[in-house]
Design goal:
309 residues; single chain; Dna Ligase, domain 1; D-amino Acid Aminotransferase, Chain A, domain 1; alpha+beta; 5-stranded antiparallel sheet; 4-stranded antiparallel sheet; 26% strand
């Protein structure tokens, strides 16, 4: 299966055909209307009808989500909200640059990101005032608000798919890497391998020649769409604590169908974000087995909604 072809339209059409559900796609298959025994359901992008609108808006707002989770004593990565200067009258502030610089001084290194973005787009590290300014200016040039979070050393990042009170899938996001042969530089190894939207670390020494068999990570981001790969977690010793943590986080915001991104840090598990749209594109495209698992999860979510409607 090609990762360049969206998997969800095919998955939904197969699910509907198998369960006698009529389906119609609109807007280039980014909107679907389904009818089952007189009951209608819509899927827009990767958002299913299982969740309510308030929950979706909270999860789509990184800063709002971190505030709600922190208030409910759910360990998470704190995100601080900033609005573009031309819209600041909505916030009643007289400017935010000093507050941004204070966050950088406090944490030493920060991550600047679009407050409602996804897929690792417009996400930047900053450890100097110059880097912070460049990141903020770029993000404000393409969107009206941003979030600043402390940079956290991530031991592992996991995605937990929650569907109607159960964690149906957990996979670890393996950062993109190349394996050395003792001859070629990191740059040459990267050029020989196809990565989707790969962004190499600014400080990575691409002239380095990894030894034969040596693993060389080329990005700090864990996004599947940017070269990372999924590794399904089956070990109960790892999966069970993650599942319990993800369910507690999802329950806090009332998420029925969502993906909870959990990071493992030196301080323990923390929620990075909760996605109200459940995207399993890269996961489903990785293998026939993964495709079948994604199909089963999407199918159960849709049938659960129709049963409750």
């Amino acid at each position: 299966m090609s990762e360049k072809t969206r998997q969800l339209p095919r998955l939904l059409r197969e699910i509907c055909a198998e369960h006698g559900i009529s389906i119609h796609g609109f807007s280039g298959d980014w909107i679907f209307e389904m009818d089952h025994q007189g009951k209608k359901a819509f899927v827009i992008g990767y958002k299913f009808p299982n969740n309510d609108a308030a929950m979706e808006q909270i999860c789509d707002d990184k800063c709002a989500l971190s505030d709600v989770l922190a208030h409910n004593q759910i360990p998470c990565v704190p995100h601080t909200y900033f609005m573009r200067p031309d819209n600041q009258y909505y916030m009643g502030t007289g400017g935010d640059w000093e507050k941004m610089m204070e966050l950088l001084r406090r944490y030493g290194k920060v991550v600047c990101k679009s407050n409602s973005g996804s897929g690792g787009t417009n996400v930047f590290k900053a450890s100097t005032m110059r880097e912070l300014e460049a990141a903020v200016c770029h993000i404000f040039s393409v969107t009206q608000d941003l979030a600043i979070a402390p940079y956290v050393e991530v031991e592992n990042e996991y995605r937990c798919i929650v569907c109607e009170g159960q964690v149906r899938l957990i996979y670890r996001k393996l950062r993109p890497f190349v394996v050395g042969d003792g001859k070629r530089t990191a740059a040459e190894l990267i050029a020989a391998k196809t990565f989707a939207k790969l962004e190499t670390d600014d400080g990575a020494d691409l002239s380095y020649v990894p030894a034969d068999g040596e693993k060389f990570e080329v990005s700090w981001k864990h996004n599947i769409g940017r070269g990372a790969s999924p590794e399904i977690i089956e070990d109960p010793a790892v999966a069970e604590p993650l599942a319990a943590f993800a369910l507690k986080a999802a329950g806090t915001v009332g998420a029925r169908f969502a993906s909870v991104d959990v990071i493992q840090t030196a301080e323990g598990l923390k929620v990075l974000e909760i996605n109200s749209g459940v995207m399993m594109e890269g996961f489903a495209a990785a293998s026939a087995e993964n495709y079948a698992r994604a199909k089963a999860i999407y199918g159960d979510a849709l049938l659960a909604y129709f049963a409750r409607a």
